[in-house]
Amino acid sequence: MPVCQCDESRPRFPELEAVLSEYSLIRGSLITILQKTQDIYGYLSEEVIYHISERTGITPARIYGVATFYTQFNLQPTGKYLILLCEGTACHVNSAPLIAEAISQHLGIDAGQTTVDGLFSLSVVACLGCCSLAPVMMIKGLSGEETYGNLSKEKALAILDEIAARDNQAAASDSQAAASDIQAASRDIQATTSDNQAAAQKDQQAAPERQASR
Ligand code: FES
Fold first, then answer.
1. Where residue 192 falls among pLDDT bands split at 50, 70, 90?
2. pLDDT in tens, 22-48
3. CATH code of the domain containing 85
4. Is 44 in the pocket of ligand 1 (CB under 6 A)?
5. What number is the average pLDDT over the span 170-198?
6. Do the domain assignments include residue 6?
7. Domain total of the chain
């Protein structure tokens, strides 16, 4: 009978251990735990919510209640770039809703959704902490996050277009590099095959001499 190789003593979410050790017993720290969890995994999966529930003693229903109440939390995997558009008071009175509408139309998604190509997710959040730059959006990508202030509809859309263009370019150079690697590998194989053929030919030519010398 096969023996289970699972290591029961290993934490299921090792990256989350430090957060849970620090906050799981502190009352009122659920939002902090969820924020830090989302920072690590990009979204709050069902598995991670149940894990947090086990460790904190807070019911999954309550965690879901909090996670769905605040728009900053994502329950689905996000795109490569997560747009956090601020709709806090300062941004709201400076046309953030119009910018949100323009982004939604431009990308074809509503807040909480991801574009079909998986490039952008849109999330509407409360104050990002830089109200003097209102209206503001933050974009989180693989290489970090960047905040853009004093937005207009046009400026916001231009920023998104530029990110998409940069991403396309990077993808094109990656494919070119991969194609060069494949070409180099195929040249290596050809060279090895020719070497092997030459060795076999030499061996064949030497065969009569070997026979004569016996
Ligand atoms: S209200 Fe938008 S950054 Fe503060």
1. confident
2. 999 999 999 999 999 998 888 899 999
3. 3.40.30.10
4. no
5. 74
6. no
7. 2
Give the contacts of 191 (CB within 8 A, at least 6 positions apart): none
Is any ligand 1 atom within 6 A of the Cβ of residue 136? yes
For residue 211, give both structure tokens: 């026979």
Looking at residue 188, its pLDDT comes to: 77
Per-residue pLDDT reduced to its tens digit, 3-19: 545 555 667 899 999 99
Q: Using CA positions, which residue lies closest to atom 1 of ligand 1? A: 88
Look up residue 74 and give its two tokens.
Answer: 């994502």
Residue 160 falls within a domain, yes or no? yes
CA of 152 to the centre of ligand 1 (A): 15
Ligand 1 centroid to Cα of residue 141, in Å, is 20
Alpha carbons 186 and 178: distance in angstroms, whole number: 12
